Structures are given as structure tokens and as C-alpha cells.
Amino acid sequence: MRETGEGAPRPLRVALLSYRGNPHCGGQGVYVRHLSRELAALGHAVTVFAGQPYPVLDPGVRLVKVPSLDLYREEDPFRIPRAREIASPVDLLEVATMCTGGFPEPRTFSLRVAPLLLARRGELDVVHDNQSLGTGLLRVLAGGLPVVASVHHPVTVDLALELAEAPSRARRRSLRRWYRFARMQARVARALPRLLTVSRSSARDVAAEMGVDPGRIAVVPVGVDDATFRPYPQVARVPGRIMTTASSDVALKGLAYLLEALAKLRTEHEQAHLVVIGRLREQSRAREVLGRFGLERAVTFVSGEADEQIARRYATASCAVVPSLYEGFSLPAIEAMATGTPLVATTGGALPEVVGEDGDAALLVPPADASALAEAIGRLLGDARLARRLAERARRRVLDRFTWAATATRTAEEYRRVLEGGGRC
């Protein structure tokens, strides 16, 4: 529904920022695509400013490309650029940060996009940053443009979980170097007039980990594309098929515990097998577990698929699993629920807030507990009535609570709140 007509507030001119927009790896591309589309459907003029890999956007949303050196491109990660590619101080900063073990993109993207935004300040009402939280945003704010930022969860949570699984002191040093940008993000977050996050759990963590005043944090849950992620009754479920999404093979996602659970489960359910939407890292605990239990033939990894292909994969699964140690929200959880696929999830972070109480729309287990995961998955594989009841309740819960249209409406309300306050703290 468009925000037009007599008495309706005027449409806003929104710049939506994403330092990387890959729609098939991580949640940034998903968030930017669906939020921008629904903001445009409300009548707002939305321009996405994005770095590589560039997002897929819907008609009616403009894209401004903000090229970087693209040092982490999928086909050539951690590449060393040629000297002629380094054409600015920001380029030099990007290379130097990578070469000293840090992750430069949040900062360098913000520094590149700041002059582009300030040059258009007469054409924009509000800037919405999607978790870059780079120092360039402070220049934008000082230049008179109101800035809102989304923080899905503090990256310090990822760091803590990675450190807990690090096998050596050298690996821990490497992780601390990589996550140095977290200090910058906390500093910038404290300077912005409004932060959006996706759950009450994340709001508490953002306040505690980043030192942000809780009164400046608004909870705006994300949504699901329920036209794509829906039941496909014509697609037969494959007995024993389990599905999970681990787009980034990091400790936070808990894939290693799910693989251990699969090994336990196969002692009683020989046909149990796992489809993973994602890829394994060369060095990860999940890869080690896969080899230790000889699961190579029982696990399939797929990546780069369009949403409809993923939704149809859910339709073939007997159950879906979110084994995360922590989630600020979990798009994979609500995507599985929207397809009517029975779900097992952990109680990590915001997951109980998203999927409901144990036994309502999903089975819940403690995080980092392979035995509990195996037991819960086994219950669903062995009890068709329970699986069907959970699946029906899960889809109803998603349609009632988590749609992108609702996300866009609430987000626009927060834009107006900042504009009414002058765009500053």
C-alpha cells in the first residue's frame, strides 16, 4: 500500500547502503533487495549504493555502484591488486588493511560512499546504512544528512565464538586482527541518532556490546518473501532428508554440531542425509567433523541458487535445522517455516523469539549440543503427525509476524522519527 493520498506524509527519498550485496551469500543482499522493493511499493524513492558483489534489485529501485578493489571476490579471494589499480588513498588503505590481516570493507566503503551522498544531499531525505558502520558515515552526518543504521547483531559475538573454537594462539591473533573493525563500528554506532535491529535479543546485545543507549535502538524484524518461500505440495518430500543453511561456514552457525548430530542419527536412521545451502571453508571445524565421521556421501553442499530453487529444496526436505550458536534473527528459520517444513532450532540468541516456544512451531534444543539435535531431528523423522502440526503452525506464525511489507512500513516510521528530531542525537 502506498503512503499517498490526502493527509498522507510525503514520500521519502532514501539512500540505502550495503558494502556488499551478494544475494546468495549472507543476509546483506537479501535484506537490501526486499526492503528496497517494499519501500518503493510504499511510494518512496529508493536508491541503493552498494559495493561488490553488487545486489540484485527489483524494478523501481535505482542502483549506484560504489566500486572497491574487490579483494575478496569469490574466484580470487585475498588477491593482491596491480599497482595501477591503486588510484586513491582509500584504495591504499584497503590493501594495507588486508595485508595486515584486517577486514577493510566496512570502513573503506563508507569513505567512498560519503562524497557521493554529500554531492546529492539536496536529492535525499535520509541515509540508511546496512551494518557497515564505517567512519565515512560521520562525515555524512556532519554534512547535514540524517543517518539511520541497521545492526543485525554485534560482530563481537562472532569474534567471541570464533575465538572459543580457535585451535591455536596464532589463529586467535589472526581473528583479533580481522575483527579490528568492530571497535570502529561501536564508535560510529554510538554517534548515530537511530539504530534499527531485528529482535529484542539483538537490541540487548547491541546496547551491551557496543555501548549504545537502548533508547536509540528500535526493533524492526525482517521478513520473508512468502510468494516464493511457500509450500510446494506437488513436490514430494524425500525420506530422511535434512536441510540447513550455512552461507558462511563460521563457528556462529553451528554446522559442526549438526554434522555430529547427523553421524549419531544415522546409527538409527540409515537414510538420514543432509543438504547444506553454503560452502565449506578450507580450514573449519565442520570440514574436520565431516571427514572424522566419514559423512562425505551423506552431505551435499549447494550454493549460488536462486530463491525459488532454495524454496523447492525445502519442499523436498523432511525437516530443516538451524543449529546456530547465536542468531540476531535468522532468515533461514523463517524461510523454512514459510515453506511449511518442520523445523528444529537452537535457543541461541533470538531464535526462540523468532520461532516461538518449544513445541509450538518448532522443536528447540540448547546450542552446541549434538545429542539434543540428533534426538529432536529423530523425533520429526519418526512422527509424521508432529511434523505436520509444527509445519502448519510455523507457516501461520511467519505470515502473521514476518513480512517484508511490515518491515518496510516500520522502517519508514523510524526514518520519519529521525527526521522529526532533526537527524541528530
What does this structure look like?
With 425 residues, this protein is of the alpha/beta class. It has 2 domains: 13-223 and 404-420, 3-Layer(aba) Sandwich (Rossmann fold), CATH 3.40.50; 241-401, 3-Layer(aba) Sandwich (Rossmann fold), CATH 3.40.50. It has 16 helices and 13 strands. The protein has helices at 28-41, 89-99, 105-119, 136-142, 155-165, 169-178, 181-191, 200-210, 255-265, 285-292, 307-316, 331-338, 351-355, 370-382, 384-401, 404-420; strands at 13-18, 45-50, 62-65, 126-130, 147-150, 194-197, 217-219, 241-245, 273-277, 299-302, 319-322, 343-346, 363-365. Helix 1 links the parallel strand 1 (13-18) and strand 2 (45-50).
- What's the N-to-C terminus distance? 31 Å
Strand order of the largest sheet: 3-2-1-4-5-6-7
Supply the CATH architecture of the largest domain: 3-Layer(aba) Sandwich
Radius of gyration, rounded? 22 Å
| CATH class label of the largest domain | Alpha Beta
For the report, how would you describe the main beta sheet?
Answer: 7 strands, parallel
> What order do the helices and strands follow?
EHEEHHEHEHHHEHEEHEHEHEHEHEHHH
Q: Give the overall shape, derived from the CA principal axes.
A: globular
How many domains, as an integer?
2
Helix percentage:
40-55%
Class from secondary-structure proportions: alpha/beta
Overall average residue pLDDT: 93
Q: Within the CATH hierarchy, at the fold level, what is the topology of the largest domain?
A: Rossmann fold
Poorly predicted regions are none
CATH homologous superfamily identity of the largest domain: Glycogen Phosphorylase B
Strand content: 5-15%
Q: Count the helices. How many?
A: 16
Oligomer: single chain
